[in-house]
Design brief:
Radius of gyration of chain B: 28 Å
Helix content of chain B: over 70%
Strand order of the largest sheet of chain B: 1-2
Order of helices and strands of chain A: HHHHHEHHHHEHHH
Oligomer: heterodimer
Shape of chain A: globular
Largest sheet of chain A: 2 strands, antiparallel
Number of helices of chain A: 12
Structural class of chain A: mainly alpha
Radius of gyration of chain A: 22 Å
Helix content of chain A: over 70%
Strand order of the largest sheet of chain A: 1-2
Number of strands of chain B: 6
Largest sheet of chain B: 2 strands, antiparallel
Strand content of chain A: under 5%
Distance between the termini of chain A: 33 Å
Largest interface: A-B, 69 and 66 residues
Structural class of chain B: mainly alpha
């Protein structure tokens, strides 16, 4: 009798704790935002700039998130090494860019710049795809029927292996991307000050690639096979679908997106090193969960949402509360977002698209 | 008839194709090792001084393993096996030769940092790029040796492998082992066996004849009736024989032969004599030992006495552990303190991850809480809140870490397993960012951290307990206490509840275990242990810096548990020694530490998910499927396919059907 009483009491305590947690978060957000807006430190232009930054960053997250969400959807596995696949793409793009720059092609004229970027994206996507397919073959496929922690640990291992392989190959120094002159020019729109072409490029190419991916997954035969396999592996196999091939294709698609995203990210931030994949990786995973894991449009929504929160959040929530150096806390916001989503809405904004768990 | 002949030919073609595949795999591995920098970096450290460096032995090791594995397709046909080994080794070496030829021509260095002249020098044994054929030739020869190894009887194969591995281990630790040896009465032998940077040839001869003695002695002893005693005597006589004759030879070195060379020759000779002698004597000794009927006498002893007998081998170990910091000097003392602190944290995470199955990638958060609590309570700097002694602060640190664990655990424990790992990772990162942020700078000192933490014992500078030594003993005592607690917890009611949750949450709940409370306790207890680790760490450094708080700490702890064996206390100790001790001791390992971790985690999950030193229950559970026939699958066909794969008639992993799906959570 008393034991049950204690258990009830702890349940109530936990519920109370969780509610106070929610209220605290909401309070910080609401009060902080209100105070910040009242200070009038930021002009409307500044907010617009932050929003555009968020949109740019968010499109990169969205592209990486697609890989997480598709792999999770098909294998129920967090591909911890996906951030490193992204990093590999950034490196592939870097060496392509250097080669193009040495050949004088990169900045010859706007058309050649554009062509160079397309080549960089393709090379990066190819490098990432090769790496992802290799990891899948070596580190994940043999573990397909193992308990859940086993492939997760293997993917953590793969993540470190890739990071430090790149460190061994290329050293721990930072590599600066060659400048593409045209990308750093202002677009010159009257209502969007400081909008640079690079941001337009990132947003546009992300949208384009994601649309193509979406159409591929929804319309093509291979896409249908992928969806069937993530619905139910054994039934799909009975229908004559090559399960392994569908899974490898999923990895390859996600990796190609991540590799291209690596180049876009590097064009935005200009510097890469072997550790560059970690933070975008975790954030993209957050985006995937945020949008509802297994849900392709959800990953895009989640990525854009997280990008916005991260860009606007520190200034909006914390400036009014008198927090010093708010930009230091942008990762805190992203990680808090991650924890909050996992606690309060693990099925995400648009809802999970996972097949019903079979007993 | 023709059909059968055809299939045999096909099979043989397949075998050679596999040898080719093996060679290509070796080629990829060798190129990888070269370009990732392992070969040139490790060249600075020698195994056998003046003869073999670690960098080269990575390449040689690849050749041997590839040759051995390629020979596996021709078991029972020695000539073909050796040819296959040589072929695969040659392909591997050819890749390196190509690298030497092409690398400088296309300026590979502009992309791969390590494709430098020093790499090519190592690969050509210091002769320069015009000797590009050296790896090709070396690969063929060493690969053939690897293939030849496969044709030997299994015990001898094992002893050769053991010998080569102990050669590596002794060579690496040469300097460490030599220091106490030189201080002992056996200084002259120590000088013969080791140089300051590796084994001598004599040392290598003694090592090899010791392990070969075990193998050959065992093989001879087996014919005489006792493999075990053949092994023991073979090992002993191999070691003693080569050591003795080597030392005698060195003391009576004929003119024209240096002392060390004489020792090496004598060592080889002694081994040749000692090993077969040991094997022959082994049978006799076995008979004699059996006559003593030790086992019956042991069984007749009362329980307490039996326990005491079993503890006897532990005594020398204990003595070694206690005098460790004095015998090897200050740097080593510092390293073993690190190891001890990681054992502490490992035991903590062992409860969370090993027993309850909650993968926590943000364990560093609790380490941070412990370290900052001690620092805040004891520091003499401006951030100090109370002038506590270290001892008084530790219980607070543990308590605060426990509460913190409960506090963080409450919201996140409802999350399903794989999400939990990421959520805790997020928590760890939040704590790390906050500890360096300007937000908490007035309290935690920002990037400068909190300094001025007093040592637990205030002693005079020359005292044996000054420096890291006192922390070593404190950490040792803490680890002992915690290991005892962990051991008792594991077998308690709550421990069994944790294991039940790890196995299957739904079933655990159904049999009346309160999931949230039980998980919370595991999480908070793990946190408390990590807090203790942080407290000891703050005492060691005399400060807390936010740079010591990073994701890699969490990864270190998680990796050492996974490698050691989840849920296994000896596994934690071994894992900490290997994963923390080695990289701290050797700069080269430090460089590639996380590369090795990554490879180890992937390899372990694939081949040995229970870890190197698993607790018995985990081992049984993870291998259970191998003993049970898969339900619902036409077993006969499945077995037939396995047989076919073993016979090499079809490729492994041919999709027979979806393997019997056993949905696990």
């Amino acid at each position: 009798m008393s034991r049950r009483y204690v258990e009830r009491l702890t349940d109530i305590a936990i519920a109370a704790f969780l509610w106070s947690f929610r209220i605290a978060v909401v309070l910080v957000v609401v009060v902080g935002s209100a105070l910040t807006l009242m200070t009038g430190l930021f002009t409307a232009d500044a907010w617009v700039r932050l929003l555009v930054d968020g949109l740019t960053l968010g499109s990169v997250y969205a592209m990486v998130a697609l890989g997480y969400t598709m792999v999770y959807g098909i294998l129920r596995m967090i591909n911890f090494a996906h951030g490193e696949v992204f990093m590999a793409g950034a490196f592939g793009g870097y060496f392509t860019a250097v080669a193009l720059d040495d050949a004088g092609f990169l900045n010859a004229n706007p058309l050649s710049s554009l062509l160079s970027i397309v080549i960089m994206l393709l090379v990066a996507a190819a490098v990432s795809t090769v790496i992802a397919v290799l990891i899948e073959r070596i580190a994940y496929r043999p573990l397909r029927n193992a308990p859940r922690l086993v492939p997760l640990i293997s993917s953590i291992g793969a993540s470190f292996f890739l990071q430090y392989t790149f460190r061994g190959f290329f050293g721990s120094r930072k590599y600066s991307y060659p400048t593409v002159d045209i990308l750093n020019q202002d677009v010159g729109l009257p209502f969007l000050v400081d909008l640079r072409w690079v941001q337009v490029l990132v947003i546009a190419s992300a949208l384009l690639m994601m649309t193509v991916l979406y159409l591929f997954v929804m319309r093509s035969r291979t896409g249908t096979a992928i969806r069937a396999v993530s619905e139910d592996k054994s039934t799909a196999a009975l229908m004559g679908i090559d399960v392994n091939r569908a899974i490898v294709t999923t990895f390859a698609l996600g990796a190609a997106m991540a590799g291209a995203a690596g180049v876009l990210y590097a064009l935005l931030f200009r510097q890469i090193d072997f550790f560059v994949g970690f933070l975008p990786g975790v954030k993209a995973f957050t985006s995937a969960v945020l949008g509802g894991i297994g849900n392709v449009p959800g990953a895009v929504v989640g990525g854009l949402f997280l990008g916005e929160i991260e860009a606007v959040g520190p200034a909006l929530f914390f400036t009014g509360l008198g927090v010093p150096s708010v930009t230091q806390l942008k990762d805190v916001i992203a990680f808090t977002m991650l924890v909050l989503v996992l606690i309060f809405r693990p099925s995400g904004i648009l809802g999970e698209r996972l097949a019903r768990q079979r007993a | 008839m023709t059909a059968i002949t055809a299939s045999v030919t096909v099979t043989r073609h397949r075998r050679w194709r596999r040898v080719l595949t093996m060679g290509m795999t070796g080629a990829v591995i060798a190129i990888y090792l070269a370009l990732v920098g392992i070969v040139p970096t490790f060249e600075a450290r020698s195994l056998i001084s003046g003869v073999l460096a670690v960098g080269e032995s990575f390449v040689l090791g690849t050749f041997i393993v590839i040759g051995y594995l390629a020979a596996r397709y021709f078991d029972g046909r020695p000539a073909l096996a050796v040819t296959a080994g040589a072929g695969a080794g040659a392909i591997t070496g050819a890749a390196l030769s190509l690298l030497i030829l092409i690398g400088p021509a296309v300026n590979l260095r502009s992309i791969f940092l390590n494709a430098s002249d020093s790499l090519y020098a190592v690969l050509t044994l210091g002769r320069g790029t015009e000797f590009f054929w050296i790896p090709l030739l070396g690969g063929a020869v060493v690969g053939a040796l690897g293939g030849a190894m496969r044709t030997l009887p299994l015990p001898i194969q094992k002893s050769i492998a053991a010998g080569l591995l102990s050669l590596v281990a002794l060579g690496l630790f040469a300097n460490l082992l030599r220091t106490p040896l030189l201080a002992s009465p056996f200084a002259s032998i120590g000088r013969l066996l080791f140089t300051s940077e590796g084994l001598t040839l004599f040392g290598a001869a003694v090592t090899l004849s010791t392990s070969l003695g075990a193998g050959i002695g065992g093989a001879i002893g087996a014919r005489q009736g006792s493999r075990r005693w053949g092994m023991v005597t073979g090992l002993a006589l191999g070691a003693v024989g080569s050591l003795l004759i080597g030392v005698i030879a060195a003391d009576n070195a004929p003119s024209g032969l240096s002392r060390t060379d004489a020792a090496a020759l004598g060592g080889v000779l002694g081994g040749l004599v000692g090993i077969p002698l040991g094997g022959l004597l082994g049978g006799g000794i076995a008979r004699w030992i059996r006559a003593l009927r030790l086992d019956r006498r042991y069984d007749a002893l009362p329980t307490n006495a039996r326990r005491a007998v079993r503890a006897i081998p532990m005594i020398p170990l204990l003595v070694v552990v206690l005098i460790l910091p004095f015998s090897f000097g200050q740097i080593f003392a510092q390293v073993i303190v690190f190891v001890a602190i990681y054992i502490l944290m490992g035991l903590g995470l062992n409860i969370t991850l090993g027993l309850a199955g909650l993968l926590d990638l943000g364990f560093v958060a609790f380490f941070a809480v412990g370290a900052y609590t001690v620092s805040l309570l004891t520091s003499t700097s401006e951030f100090g809140l109370a002038d506590f002694s270290w001892w008084l602060a530790v219980p607070f640190a543990v308590g605060v870490a426990f509460l913190f664990g409960a506090f963080l655990g409450l919201p996140i424990l409802g999350i399903r397993g794989d999400y939990l790992a990421i959520a805790t990772l997020g928590f760890g990162e939040i704590i790390r960012i906050l500890s360096v942020s300007d937000l908490l700078r007035p309290w935690l000192g920002g990037p400068q951290g909190i300094t001025g933490v007093p040592k637990p014992f205030t002693v005079a500078p020359g005292d044996p307990l000054s420096g890291p030594n006192q922390i070593y003993y404190i950490a040792l005592v803490c680890a002992g206490v915690i290991a005892f607690i962990a051991y008792r917890l594991r077998d308690s009611r709550i421990g069994r509840a944790w294991v039940a949750i790890r196995e299957d949450e739904d079933v655990a709940e159904a049999i009346g275990i309160n999931l949230v409370q039980t998980k919370l306790l595991a999480y908070a207890l793990g946190a408390a242990f990590a807090g203790l680790g942080g407290a000891v760490f703050a005492g060691l450094i005399g400060a807390t810096f936010p740079t010591d708080i990073n994701l890699l700490v969490s990864i270190n702890v998680a990796a050492l548990i996974i490698v050691g064996g989840m849920g296994s206390i000896p596994g934690v100790v071994v894992g900490a020694i290997v994963l923390i001790g080695l990289p701290e001791l050797f700069r080269e390992f430090q460089e590639y530490r996380y590369l090795f971790y990554g490879a180890a985690l992937i390899g372990l999950m694939r081949f040995r998910p229970e870890g190197l030193f698993p607790s018995r229950s985990v081992e049984r559970e993870l291998h259970v499927e191998e003993n049970v026939e898969p339900a619902g699958a036409p077993v006969g066909a499945w077995v037939a396919q396995l047989e076919a794969e073993r016979e090499g008639e079809i490729e492994p992993d041919t999709p027979y059907s979806e393997p019997p799906a056993k949905e696990t959570r």
